[in-house]
Amino acid sequence: MRQASILGIAMTLSLLLLVPAHWLSEGQSERKSETKPTAGDGFQIVKVADGVYAAIAKPGGLASGNAGFVVGAEGLLNVDTFFTPVAIEELISEMGKISPLPIKYAVNTHYHLDHTGGNQVFAARGVPIIAHDNVAKWQTTKNRRFLPLPAELEKRRADAAKQLSETPADQKDKRAQLERQIRRTDVLLTIKLTNPTVTFGSGTLHLYLGKREVILFTLPGHTGGDVLAYVPDANVLFTGDMGWSKTLPNLVDASVGDWINSLDKILQDYPAAKFVPGHGEVATAAEMRDFRNYLDDLRSRVKQAIAGGLTVEQAKTQLVLPEKYKSFAFQNFAQPNVEDMYKELKGTKQTQ
Ligand SMILES: [Zn+2]
After folding, report:
1. Is 273 among the domain residues?
2. Fewest CB atoms within 10 A around its CB: which of 28, 90, 250, 330?
3. 233 belongs to a structural domain
4. Do 310 and 197 share a structural domain?
5. E-assigned strands of the chain?
């Protein structure tokens, strides 16, 4: 694996309340007095196979979820559009450095904003955006929980600007935090939730970039509207958020029972593939199995808790994450995962 480029420096985004905490993390350094949003440290491009690249999102950046692309003899295919237009613009620029050919297709693996926030950029370029039928239903509706309406964002921005103006110059940390909050709000204000232009709900879709083929298919688990992209001649599978590598998952829309079955099918069908997950580094089948086992462990532990008469609140506080998962990223998901699993097993979870 080769690093083709490392983009920029890190940026702290910990203050923001606009997206779930798991999309944010403590940043490493700050950039001051910058008004124009840039993706900065958003992602790192990793060559997975000849003409197959992952764009691995860095914690707290403006990419947020992983993306990637495939280069064929007649054009390129993009997988996922990151969290913000500015981040996908940077990826498109990096794609252009690797191949001068046109981008023929963009794929959304699912509707979550950290995978579709840059859709407007491809729409403006006339690139078809392909997704599951349910993305067309949810993209501009359910995503509102991740992206408040502009009026609300403007209000938050004004509040932060007022606080900044009232914060003395010697309170540097607080001022820096407020400045970051304002910058991030400015970026969020540039997002226009944009639907896919081609959708399917079952079966497979074969796309050709010249001789090179990319096969899209769907499996249930993460949202009920997930698409995976397989590159047969390179044996690379882009899983979207059906796969998380060394990272605790977001289960807010999940059906874990279906998801475990889907991962079993993936591992059976692609035993030697390289996997580009939705979050975390490029993974092997063994790492995908670790993730599958996390879900299975979670289900067993919560089942036991329910059998023992624990309430959801008791289960959340009493169930301790097994040692082997303590090195996973997004540790703040441990408790919400218990709650989501509990509701699923009780039949009280609303996933649609
Ligand atoms: Zn997701």
Report:
1. yes
2. 28
3. yes
4. no
5. 2-6, 43-49, 52-57, 67-71, 76-79, 103-107, 129-132, 198-200, 204-209, 212-218, 227-231, 236-244, 274-279
β-bridge partners, 79: 68, 107
* Number of domains observed in the structure of the chain: 3
Provide the whole-model pTM: 0.88
> How far, in Å, from the CA of 272 to the mean position of ligand 1?
24
Q: pLDDT confidence of 60, banded at 50, 70, 90? A: confident
| Domain identity same for 281 and 136 | yes
**Residue 42 and residue 127 share a domain:** yes
Residues 206 and 329 in one domain: no
Say yes or no to pLDDT of 350 above 70: yes
The pLDDT tens digits for 266-297 are 999 999 999 999 999 999 999 999 999 999 99
115 CA to middle of ligand 1, Å? Answer: 7
Tell me: do 279 and 331 sit in the same domain.
no
- Each residue of 61-104: pLDDT tens digit? 899 999 999 999 999 999 999 999 999 999 999 999 999 999 99
Phi/psi for 5 (5° steps) reads -165, 155
Longest Cα separation, the chain? 62
Tell me, yes or no, whether 281 and 156 share the same domain. Answer: no
Pairing of the two strands 227-231 and 67-71: unpaired
Q: How remote is the CA of residue 309 from the centroid of ligand 1, in Å?
A: 31
Q: What's the token pair of residue 286? A: 């063994």
Dist. CA 111 → ligand 1 center (Å) = 7
Domain holding 170, by residue range, is 150-188
**352 in a domain, yes or no?**
no
Identify whether residues 243 and 321 lie together within a single domain: no
Task: Return the percent helix, strand and coil in the chain, to nearest 5.
Answer: 40, 20, 40
Q: What's the CA-to-centroid distance between 223 and ligand 1, angstroms?
A: 7
Query: Mean pLDDT of all residues in the chain?
Result: 90
